[in-house]
Amino acid sequence: MATFTKEQVAFIAWLAQGNYIDVCIELCPALGKMTGYESCNGHFQKRTLFKLKAQGFICESVHYITGIRYLRCSISQRGLDWLSTHTEQSHQAQPCMEPIRKAADESNWSRYTELMGGVFCK
């Protein structure tokens, strides 16, 4: 199994939320144009999509947008399974993060700053 950067993992998580990328496959001036990634918060790169496809993380289906043929790329079950496993492993590997998350969720900024190793000033 390939290793992924933090940005690539974030992109996989974005796809897992029901998002997708459309790639124009019609012989027209838009051939190869990609759309749908605009709502992705991270930096999208074509090679990330290529890598995910090579790993079997992408499902493809043909869609027509204004009469032009596009290939819709969404996450596959294999990608969802990997993300689930990866998320569980990262939570187990960083149990010390729980108090930090809890302090942030409760807006307890003095405790949060203390846990992060800083000094809190009012």
TrEMBL record:
It comes from the Bacteria. This is Uncharacterized protein.
